[in-house]
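Internal tracking record. Fields below are filled automatically when a chain is submitted to the structure queue. Please do not edit lines marked as system-generated. If the sequence contains nonstandard residues, flag them in the REMARKS field before resubmitting.
Queue: standard
Priority: normal
Entity type: single polypeptide chain
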Amino acid sequence: MTVSIVRLSTEALTALAAGDLAAATALSPVPLSPWHVSEDCSWVWQYRAKQAVETPGDLPWITGILWDESAGVAVGQSGFHGAPDADGMVEVGYAVDPAYRRRGYARAALELAIERARLEPSVRTLRATISPENEASLALLAQYPFVRNGEQWDEEDGLELIFELSV
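SYSTEM-GENERATED OUTPUT FOLLOWS
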């Protein structure tokens, strides 16, 4: 399996935010699935489309399409919450389409994030925040040298545990 993150334009993000799968697919370098405009994903695209307009420097970092190059199919979404902050921290975010879960795509997304963070000179810390109820993500993160560094309340996701990896 060869997996990559396909970056989207502001226009493609805007189409996804509007729930327009046809327009988003036409603007995307790869075909998208109905899951990408589902209720599970719409809030992400709405937030990222606005972010891409207001903070254009974040566009190369924010959520893109998790793409299985071998199968030629979009299997999820992945990226960072934004460009590195003043302290050199980036926060990873990923989600896998339920039709493709339990196949290693979340691991692939996390490993791509770790690799990119390590290759970017301005990044010193990779952060992941996970709901205490998300057993699958907690188990995945436990296989890497992340250190639990507190908790936070997220307006969208509720209580999250904070994990960080020095890169």
